[in-house]
């Protein structure tokens, strides 16, 4: 059964660098026992800044945007607008440990994109629905560098951890613009 709960993000926040899951949008969450997680965002332009810079803590994210726009990705140190395409689903490789493992085994070739939302540029509210594939919690399974891909020239860059540890650190830390992966670098 999905578990539904509601969060009022911080409408009074003066800073776009606000706390993840406490940012300035009204947000409805649902999480199933299979690790399907949905975030429905409502951004009133007069009361929100948007969503702070972050990479998703999912394995994979699928995002449905409306026509308002405001989503930006960080590319070569520049923020680039992602034009909204009606009915299109945007797919993003996330930053939870499974993806981090890809990053790790490919020696940082696969990275999850940093993104943010500027939702106070227009007159109308913005609505988006993000669906995430996450690892069901709690899980004590240990993830680390895949041994077959390691060598003297390619030593492990990250230390082992569990999804439970990673997720609790992600939630406690909030969105500070730095990937949590840095925390696991050896
Ligand atoms: O509202 C959006 O378009 C993106 C939201 C987002 O990045 C997220 O929920 O992780
Ligand atoms: Fe996101």
UniProtKB/TrEMBL annotation:
Recorded superkingdom: Eukaryota
GO molecular function term, any single one: metal ion binding
InterPro entries assigned: IPNS-like_FE2OG_OXY (IPR044861), IPNS-like_sf (IPR027443), Oxoglu/Fe-dep_dioxygenase_dom (IPR005123)
Boundaries of every Fe2OG dioxygenase domain copy: 32-136
Entry-linked PROSITE patterns: FE2OG_OXY
Pfam families per UniProt: 2OG-FeII_Oxy
Keyword annotations of the record: Iron, Metal-binding, Oxidoreductase
Family: Belongs to the iron/ascorbate-dependent oxidoreductase family.
Name of the protein in its database record: Fe2OG dioxygenase domain-containing protein
């Amino acid at each position: 059964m999905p578990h539904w709960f509601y969060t009022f993000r911080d409408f009074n926040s003066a800073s776009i660098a606000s706390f993840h899951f406490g940012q300035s949008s009204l947000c409805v969450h649902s999480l199933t026992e299979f690790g399907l997680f949905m975030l429905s965002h409502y951004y009133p332009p007069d009361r929100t800044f948007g969503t702070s810079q972050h990479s998703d803590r999912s394995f994979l994210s699928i995002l449905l945007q409306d026509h308002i726009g405001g989503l930006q990705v960080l590319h070569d140190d520049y923020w680039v607008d992602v034009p909204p395409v009606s009915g299109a689903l945007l797919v993003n490789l996330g930053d939870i440990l499974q993806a981090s493992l890809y990053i790790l085994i490919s020696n940082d070739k696969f990275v999850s994109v940093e993104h943010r939302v500027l939702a106070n540029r227009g007159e109308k509210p913005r609505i988006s629905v993000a669906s995430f594939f996450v690892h069901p919690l709690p899980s004590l399974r240990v993830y680390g560098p895949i041994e077959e891909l390691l060598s003297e020239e390619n030593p492990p860059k990250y230390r082992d951890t569990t999804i439970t540890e990673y997720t609790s650190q992600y939630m406690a830390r909030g969105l500070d613009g730095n990937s949590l992966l840095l925390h696991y670098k050896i």
